[in-house]
């Protein structure tokens, strides 16, 4: 039974680390604020959740396990909420997505002729 728990914990840690790294790559590669925020928001929540589940597999006692569960629940609640608040604040401050900005430029330049 210990072998199965160790292997599943290692797989959760590996998948969570991969998701967090891919979110960092998305943060660097995507063109505008909204796509960057989406890449980081989704992969950060899922990656941190998987890392915490992997750490739960290795937790030695109930107190450590319960603290990890509380951190996981807070992460699952706070991550999407902050992404939503950031997107709403950006829209409120008239930050348009990059594709929409390019479409607006094309429309204004074609209407001038």
What's this entry about, in short?
With 113 residues, the chain is mainly α.
Describe the structure.
This protein is an all-alpha fold. The protein has a domain at 2-78. 87% of the residues lie in helices and 0% in strands. The protein is built from 4 helices and no strands. α1 packs antiparallel against α2 and α2 (33-57) runs antiparallel to α3 (62-92). The radius of gyration is 20 Å and the shape is elongated.
Count of separate DSSP helical elements = 4
Structural class: mainly alpha
- Our estimate of the beta-strand percent is under 5%
The low-confidence parts are none
Give the number of DSSP strands: 0
Largest sheet: none
- The average pLDDT is 88
Please state the CA-atom Rg, rounded to the nearest Å. Answer: 20 Å
Q: Percent helix among the residues?
A: over 70%
Shape: elongated
Q: How are helices and strands ordered from N to C?
A: HHHH
**Terminal Cα span:** 74 Å
């Amino acid at each position: 039974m210990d072998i199965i728990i160790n292997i599943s914990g290692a797989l959760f840690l590996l998948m969570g680390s991969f998701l967090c790294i891919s979110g960092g790559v998305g943060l660097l590669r995507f063109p505008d604020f909204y796509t960057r925020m989406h890449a980081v928001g989704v992969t950060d929540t899922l990656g941190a959740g998987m890392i915490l589940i992997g750490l739960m597999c290795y937790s030695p006692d109930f107190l450590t396990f319960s603290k990890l569960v509380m951190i996981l629940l807070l992460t699952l609640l706070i991550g999407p909420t902050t992404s939503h608040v950031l997107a709403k604040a950006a829209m409120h401050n008239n930050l348009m997505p990059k594709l929409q900005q390019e479409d607006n430029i094309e429309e204004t330049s074609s209407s001038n002729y």
